[in-house]
Every structure is written in structure tokens, then in C-alpha cells.
Specification:
Elements: H1 4-26, H2 35-57, E1 60-62, E2 67-69, H3 71-100, H4 106-128, H5 132-150, H6 156-189, H7 197-202, H8 209-227, H9 235-242, H10 245-274, H11 276-299, H12 304-325, H13 328-359, H14 370-373, H15 375-388, H16 395-410, H17 413-438, H18 450-456, E3 477-478, E4 484-485, H19 499-517, H20 522-533
Antiparallel strand pairs: 1-2, 3-4
Keywords: Cell membrane, Membrane, Oxidoreductase, Transmembrane, Transmembrane helix
Membrane topology: Multi-pass membrane protein
Pfam families: Proton_antipo_M (PF00361)
Length: about 525
């Protein structure tokens, strides 16, 4: 058994890499279209096996201590495997529709699949990294992979969003790198140089407080950029709105949580070295600022993919709030919220991709009566919105209740009340926007030429839309997956969503509802994971 443990630890990284190699060698064809989903399913199985192993026998290492899995990283691997399985299972139907409409080619689909597999492997490596430096490298690798995915459409808006994503996230991750250098400097003067997370926690009380305070601030700001926390959040709505729908599901449902995992590790070190006050104050300020930005911009939002992106900011703000509270209940609720948010966002982004294919527009006011046109899709999207807003029986109801309970118990109550008020504003805005899209009579979709799209679709504002021409006579335009076609048309009225897409949406909703009713075997893992980064009851 001991000889199998290192292989099991390597599996979450190696399985996606094997999938990437398969697509690089054989391309996108009927025999490989389910390769990514198969690798994601095996990754989830490996994550579950690691979680069971860690729950029984404690943390394990591999590769000479370079990789390490404990309860927290095992739980996060379960989150990655679950959301990756949903996103990759939805990808064949999504890409098939794009190829049929001549907005993509098999070659573009193969490149898409290679990049997605590398993206998943990089996130898994970040969770297994035993060293803060390796964690930084893995997080930066996710930026490289996803930048190409964000810019796949090659329109002006997509390229602008990709560059904004690279510039802002690289700036943030550079701050984190500087923080890592300073932390290594403090560790060197404490007699144990290096960035191994266990060693840093062992010598935390011996670190120079002044240097450590600057290092922690830079690390939280740097990784907070990748989370989408204010003030370096501007990349998130552009990138999420321009990426293909399955990629948006992965970015919102998993990537943000992986970056927040890094913040949790840094906060645990900060609490040991500086006491709980410093990191708590910083996270409270970033949390309330992020919630305020999300609530304000959601009120007047006119693009439904950007609407979902700002909703992601709101939920990351809630995670920062729970991390600032820092009690065992707050952290356990935070971790449950990560999984519930990932499930809901996977459902909604996959659904939004199908809505874009059906209607040819991402403008909220141009989508009307979706329930009459495709009732099953509309029902899944509507339930996904309710799940995202924390309505029972979905898991976000339980997780948000736990976070706010812990917050009011730990105080200060007025800050928690302010956050709750902002959440209510977000709830009202999302309900109003989604009701407009789902209810009423189907609206006629306006025609947009490729030139109109280039003129009106920009990532630099909060009202830009990705509009696909609704006629078969428009000029050539660049597809959502990197291919170029002579036409870009909306799906004819009366055509229903593929059964594969509906199955993914239903599976995500069912999983989110089941988690809201009972966490089952996950409950022990949740509290064990919370115990690894907090000693507060």
C-alpha cells in the first residue's frame, strides 16, 4: 500500500497531462471527444481515495517532500475533480455545436482540450505543492494556460480581455513573488531558510515581525488578484465573459477557489507569526470592498456572462469574510461554500453558453421568454440561479448560514450586517435580470454583423456584449473556439438543447441540492480540513 501512495498523490497532476498528450497526438475526433471527461472522472476518483487515506492516516508526501497532501488539499482536489468533470462532460456538446455552426474546427477543438487539460493539471499541482514557491509557480501556470483560452475567439474584445487578464494577474502574482522573497529572507534570519509551508509554520514565532507583515500583505494582495478581490479585480468580468462557456465554468468554479486556497495557507502562517489581527483586518477590508463593487455593478449589468462574473466576485468576497472570521465553523462553511459555488457556477456558465448558441446574443435585454423556447434549459438555469443565491435546499444556503452565524458570533456584528445587506442587493439584482431572460414571450433576435460585433463588443466597460450574427449572410467572423467561419448564426427556433448539456446541468443541480441536505462523508473531511488552518474553536 505504501508504494501506491506516491502514485496516488501524483495522479491528480498526471491524469490531466495524459489527457493533454492524447489530444496533442490524436486531435479532436469521435474517439477522443470523451477523453477529457474520462481523465476528470479518474482525477475525482483519485481525489476521493486521497481524502479517505488522509482522513484515516494523516498527511502524506511524495517526490522527496515536494508534494504533500493533507485534509485541506485533499478536499480541494475533490472540488477540482467534481467541477472539472462537469465542465469537461459539457465540452463535447458545446464544441459539436460550434463545429456544426462552422464557428470552430476540429483543430481548434483539439487545442482547446489540450489547454484545458494543462489548466486542470496546474491547479492540481498548486494544491499539492508543499512549498510556497512551487505553489506560486503553479498558480502562474494557470494564468498562462487560461490566457490563451480567454483569447480563443480572437475578436478585439477577446484579445483585450486576455491581455487585461495577463497584465493584471501578472502584476498581482509579481506582488506575491516579492512577498515570497521577503518571507524567505525572514526565514533565513530565523535560521531555517526556504519556503516549505510546514517549516515556515514551525518557525513562525521566530520570523521578524516587520518583514513578515510586509510579506503577508503582498502575498494576500497578490493571490487576491487571482481570486478577483478588490482592488485588483478588473480582469475577472472581462475574462469570464469572453472565455468559452466550459472554460468560464472552470475559471469561476475552481480557479478562484484554488487561488483562495493559497490565501488560506498564507493566513494560517500570518496568524501564527503575527497574531490573528493583521490578516483579519486586511481580509475584512478586501471582502467588503469586493462585495460593494459586485453589488454596485450588478444593479445596472446588461451582459449575462458578466453578470455571472460579478456574482463570482460576490462569493469570493464572502469567502474572504469567512476567512477573516477564522473560526472552525467559519472555515468549514467556507470550504463547503467553495464546492457549492463551483457546482452552481458550472451549471450557470454551461447554461449561459447554450443560451448564447440559442439566441446569438449575451445582452440581457435581448433574451426574453427562454422558458417558452427551451423550458428544460430555462428550468435548469432558473434553479441554478436559486442555488447561487443561497435558496434551500441547495448547499449555499447551509454554507452562507454557517458563515454568517460564525461571523455574528465572532464579531464585529456591524461589519457582518453590512456584508449581509450587500448580499441582499446582489440577490435582488440577479433575480430581476434572470426573470427578464426566462419569463415573457420570446423576443426577435436582432441582426448583428461581424463589423457591428467588433465595434460594440469591448471588454473595457461593464455593458459590452458578445453578439453573434443572427443571419446567414453576414461577413466572416471569428468563432468562440478559435476557428473562422463564413457565418455565425443563432440556433433556429424550436431546436432544443443537447441531452448531454442537460444531463450536466441536472447533475450539477442534484449534487448541489444533496450537499444542502446532507454533507454525508464529507463532513468529517470538512472539519479536518478546517482544523489544518485554524486552532480557533
Amino acid at each position: 500500500m505504501n508504494t501506491l501512495v506516491p502514485l496516488l498523490i501524483w495522479a491528480p497532476v498526471l491524469l490531466p497531462l495524459l489527457g493533454a498528450a492524447g489530444y496533442a497526438l490524436w486531435g479532436w475526433r469521435p474517439s477522443t471527444r470523451w477523453l477529457a471527461a474520462s481523465c476528470s472522472a479518474l482525477l475525482l476518483c483519485a481525489a476521493v481515495a486521497l481524502a479517505a487515506l488522509v482522513a484515516r492516516t494523516g498527511p502524506h508526501t511524495a517526490a522527496g517532500g515536494v508534494l504533500r497532501v493533507d485534509a485541506l488539499s485533499a478536499y480541494m482536489l475533490v472540488v477540482i475533480g467534481t467541477i472539472a468533470l462537469l465542465a469537461t462532460a459539457a465540452t463535447p456538446a458545446y464544441l459539436a455545436a460550434e463545429i456544426t455552426a462552422e464557428r470552430a474546427t476540429p483543430r481548434a477543438a483539439a487545442l482547446h482540450s489540450v489547454l484545458v487539460a494543462l489548466f486542470i493539471a496546474a491547479m492540481a499541482a498548486a494544491l499539492l505543492a508543499a512549498d510556497l514557491g512551487l505553489l506560486w509557480v503553479a498558480v502562474e501556470a494557470t494564468t498562462i494556460c487560461t490566457a490563451f483560452l480567454v483569447g480563443q475567439r480572437r475578436t478585439r474584445a477577446a484579445v483585450e480581455a486576455a491581455w487585461k487578464y495577463v497584465v493584471i494577474c501578472s502584476t498581482g502574482i509579481a506582488l506575491a513573488l516579492l512577498g515570497a522573497f521577503l518571507l524567505n529572507h525572514a526565514a533565513t534570519h530565523a535560521g531555517r531558510p526556504g519556503l516549505n509551508l510546514r517549516n515556515l509554520n514551525d518557525i513562525a514565532t521566530g520570523l521578524d515581525p516587520g518583514v513578515t507583515r510586509i510579506a503577508i500583505a503582498l502575498l494576500i494582495l497578490g493571490f487576491g488578484t487571482k481570486v478577483g478581490l478588490a482592488p485588483l479585480h478588473a480582469w475577472l468580468p472581462d475574462a469570464h465573459s469572453q472565455a468559452p462557456a466550459p472554460v468560464s465554468a472552470l475559471m469561476s468554479g475552481v480557479l478562484l477557489s484554488v487561488a483562495f486556497y493559497a490565501i488560506l495557507r498564507v493566513k494560517h502562517l500570518a496568524d501564527a507569526a503575527l497574531g490573528p489581527g493583521f490578516a483579519r483586518t486586511l481580509l475584512l477590508v478586501m471582502s467588503l470592498a469586493t462585495l460593494a463593487v459586485a453589488a454596485t455593478l450588478l444593479l445596472a449589468q446588461r451582459d449575462y456572462k458578466r453578470m455571472l462574473a460579478y456574482s463570482s466576485m460576490e462569493h469570493m468576497g464572502l469567502l474572504a469574510l469567512a476567512a477573516a472570521v477564522g473560526t472552525r465553523l467559519a472555515v468549514a462553511a467556507l470550504l463547503l461554500h467553495m464546492l457549492g459555488h463551483g457546482l452552481a457556477k458550472a451549471v450557470l456558465f454551461v447554461g449561459s453558453g447554450r443560451i448564447l448558441q440559442l439566441t446569438g446574443t449575451s445582452q440581457i435585454h435581448q433574451v426574453r421568454g427562454l422558458a417558452a423556447r427551451d423550458p428544460v434549459l430555462a428550468g435548469c438555469v432558473g434553479l441554478g440561479v436559486l442555488a447561487l443565491l443561497g435558496f434551500p435546499p441547495f448547499s449555499l444556503f447551509a454554507s452562507e448560514l454557517g458563515m454568517f452565524r460564525a461571523g455574528f458570533a465572532a464579531g464585529p456584528g456591524w461589519l457582518i450586517a453590512a456584508a449581509l445587506l450587500l448580499v441582499l442587493v446582489v440577490t435582488a439584482a440577479l433575480l430581476a435580470h434572470c426573470a427578464h431572460m426566462l419569463l415573457g414571450n420570446p423576443a426577435h433576435q436582432p441582426t448583428k454583423t461581424a463589423a457591428d460585433t467588433r465595434d460594440t463588443t469591448t471588454g473595457a466597460n461593464d455593458t459590452g456584449a458578445t453578439v453573434i450574427s443572427a443571419t446567414a449572410t453576414s461577413a466572416s467572423t471569428t468563432s468562440a473556439t478559435g476557428g473562422t467561419s463564413a457565418t455565425a448564426v443563432a440556433v433556429p427556433p424550436g431546436e432544443r438543447s443537447p441531452s448531454g448539456t442537460i444531463a450536466v446541468l441536472a447533475a450539477g443541480l442534484i449534487a448541489c441540492a444533496v450537499l444542502g441536505i446532507t454533507t454525508g462523508a464529507l463532513q468529517q473531511l470538512l472539519y479536518q480540513a478546517a482544523d489544518t488552518i485554524t486552532s480557533t474553536p
